[in-house]
Amino acid sequence: MSSINISNNERYLRYIENELMIKGGRWIASFDVAIRDFDIATTLKKKATFDQKKKFDALIFGGVRNKGFVLSKAFAFMASPTYRVGCSVIYLEKAPSIKWSTLVENIRDATTVMSAMEFEWMWLLFFGEGNLISKVEKGITTYKSRTLGLLYADLKNKVIINSNTFISRHGAKLFNPINLDKKYSSFKFWVKK
Predict the structure, then answer these.
(1) Is residue 75 within a helix (H) or strand (E), and if so which, with residue range?
(2) I need a surface site. Which of 43, 69, 116, 140 has the fewest CB within 10 A?
């Protein structure tokens, strides 16, 4: 048997899916749907108008559901709301030269998807290799939204930059690329020759 090499980008996408659907994300919500190459225009054509080329590398979503034993489920059903949440992931191919205006377009797309899919809140996670220019980094760190958490994961330097909101700070703990090698150092898939 020989191993199949997968790119660092694919490893990170799998890490995000695993982190949300199986590991730490399960404490936040029941993330049970992951769509790769989420085609915004085709999926939401009746609810919104988009540029036909727009895609998220991944969209992972689910809902906050009532959990626990029978009595706690009944109490939670009456006392707490049930709502949908999501995480959109976008790879920035040339991250060090990306402009803030490009990210603003993606933010608009993400808020439209949130509205069309009736998400209560969502993470918008950018990832790439290399430092962002200072204007873009400042744009991310100063972005204020109670419903959209903005983050950038630098796979080369193993750091994450996030806006200073509750949603983003929590996302930074889940998606920090430094944990990619610590938790999931062997994404190896074996096939027969």
Answers:
(1) helix 70-79
(2) 69
Q: Return the number of other C-beta atoms located less than 10 Å from residue 170's C-beta.
A: 16
166-175 and 8-21 helices, crossing angle to 10°: 120
Tell me the C-alpha distance between 56 and 36, whole Å. 8
**Is residue 121 within 8 Å of residue 146, measured between CB atoms?**
yes
Q: Which of 37-41, 47-51, 52-56, 164-168 has maximum average pLDDT? A: 164-168
> What is the structure's pLDDT at 129?
95
Give the pLDDT mean for 17-30.
81
**CA-to-CA distance for 126 and 9, rounded, in angstroms?**
11
pLDDT of 181 above 70: yes
Yes or no: say if 123 and 171 are a contact pair by the CB < 8 Å rule. yes
Give the integer Cα–Cα distance in Å for 71 and 58: 36
Compute the mean pLDDT over every residue in the chain, rounded to the nearest whole number.
82
DSSP sequence for 45-73: TTT----TT-EEEEEEEEEE---SSHHHH
- Global pTM value: 0.82
CB 62 within 8 A of CB 31: yes
Q: In angstroms, how far is CA 149 from the centroid of its own chain?
A: 9
